[in-house]
Amino acid sequence: MTFGKECDIMKELLEKIDEQNFMVNDYHTIIKIIDASLSRGAIRSNECVTVGKLYEKCVFMINKHNKENDNARLSETDN
Questions:
Q1: In the prediction, which pLDDT does 58 show?
Q2: Which of 58, 9, 71 is nearest to 30 (CA)?
């Protein structure tokens, strides 16, 4: 497999994630997979930017979910 082909696969994965309705646990799982892959050297340096974007997107979605839950709890206590 060539580097260009691997980058295309990662871009396709990012696009598919945009189309999916993931649960917060799915994002945690993706982060764990990325961490394990990086620690084992499974991701090449030219793929790191794409993988990093996926990682950051997962962290963002987890934080967004947590903030929404916190706001919902605050709304419940205001009533």
A1: 95
A2: 58
